[in-house]
Structure prediction request, 203 residues.
Amino acid sequence: MKKNKQTIVLLLSLLFIFAMLSFTFKEQAIFWYLYAFTLLVGIAISLIFGKFEDQLPTWQYLIYGTGYGTIAYGLVKLGYILLPYIDSSATKDINKFLATYGPSNIGHYLMLIFIIVVGEEMFWRGFIQQGLKRFTTPLYAVFITAILFSLSLAISGFMPGALAAIFTGLLWGALYEWKKSLPLVIVSHIVFVVLLFLVLPIT
Prediction:
C-alpha cells in the first residue's frame, strides 16, 4: 500500500511539473514568476514526500561543489563551441532562447539562484531520482532522471538546452549518488549558473 501511494505521488508530481512547464514556456511575459512558482511547488513536494542526504561537512561540499560546477560549465561551454559544426543554426537558436527566457534583471538572478536551482535539485535529484530507486538500480535512476530533467526543457523546443540538461543531469545525479550530499549538488548547480550567466557567459 505504501509503495502504491509513493508511486502515485511520483507520477502526479511529474504530471504537475510537465503540465506547468508546458504552460509556463508559452507565457513569456510572466515566465520567470511561473517558473519560480512551479519549482516552489516542487520544493514543497520534495520536503513533504522526499528524504534528502547530506553526508559531507560544509567545507567539503563547498569545495567539491565549486569544482564540479566549474566542470559542468566547461562541458556546456565545449558543447557550445562544437555544436555549430554539427548544426549550423544551433548558435542562433541558443541566442534566441536566451534573449527570450534568459535572466535580465536582479530579480531574475535571485529567483534563479535561490528558488529555481534549489528547486530543480531538490525535486529532480532529491525526490524523483530517489523515488525511482525503489523500482530500479541507482544507475538507471540517474539516467532516467536526467532524461526527465532534459524533457522539462525540451517542452520549450530548446533542443540544445535539453541536450545540455542530459549531460548536467547525469553529472549531478551521479554526484549525488556518489557523495550522498544534496547541498553539494545544489552548490555545484549554483556555481554552474553563476559562471554561465554572470561570470563567463557563453554568448
